[in-house]
Amino acid sequence: MTELDIRPATSWPDVEAVFGPQGAHGGCWCLWFRATGAHFRELKGEGARDRLRALVDAPGPAPGVLAFLDGAPVGWCAVAPREDHLRLAKSPAMKPLDAAEPGVWAVTCFYVTRSGRGKGIPVALLSGAVDYAASCGARAVEGYPIDTDRKLMAAELYHGWRALFDAAGFREVARRTPTRPVMRRDLRA
Q1: Among 78, 87, 113, 174, whose CB has the most other CB atoms within 10 angstroms?
Q2: Which domains are seen in the chain, by residue range?
Q3: Where are the alpha helices (DSSP H) in 95-150?
C-alpha cells in the first residue's frame, strides 16, 4: 500500500528533487508565468532556479504544493495568488475576467516525476492546491487546462487537462481559444 501526501512547497531540497538538475522542462523551474518574456529569457536556467529557491525560502505562502509518495517527493503544482503570475494578465487566452477582484488564486503548472506518473498524482496535487489556497484565504481558484481531443505528450500537460479540473469541481467561466478554457472553483458561499 502506497501513501500519498500533499504539502506546501517549503523545502528547497524537496522541490529540487522533483524538478531535477535541469529544472523540469528545459530549465523553466516553473517561472514561465511569474515573469515577463524578456525577464524569463534572462532568468532561464540557473537564474530561474535561484528565483524559485528564493520563493520557496521566503516567508509567506509557498509558491506551490508538492506530492510525496511513500515519503519521496514526486510531483509539483504551482498555486499562488493570480497577481503573482504576471503572464496571466497579458495572455489573450488566460487573462483575468475580473482583474481587480481580490482573493483569486491560480493553478498554472503541474509536474510529475517519471516515478510518480500513472499513479493519480495530478488529481491529488490539484486537490491539495485548492485546499492550500483556501487555507491561505483564497476565495476562488482558477486553472487554464488544455481541452482537446488530440492525444497529448506528457510535456504538453503542464497546464492540466479539462477532465482533471471538471472532476475537482471547477466550472468553465470563459473560453477565448478553442482549446484553453478558464476554469474556476469558488471556495466561499
Answers
A1: 78
A2: 4-186 (3.40.630.30)
A3: 121-135
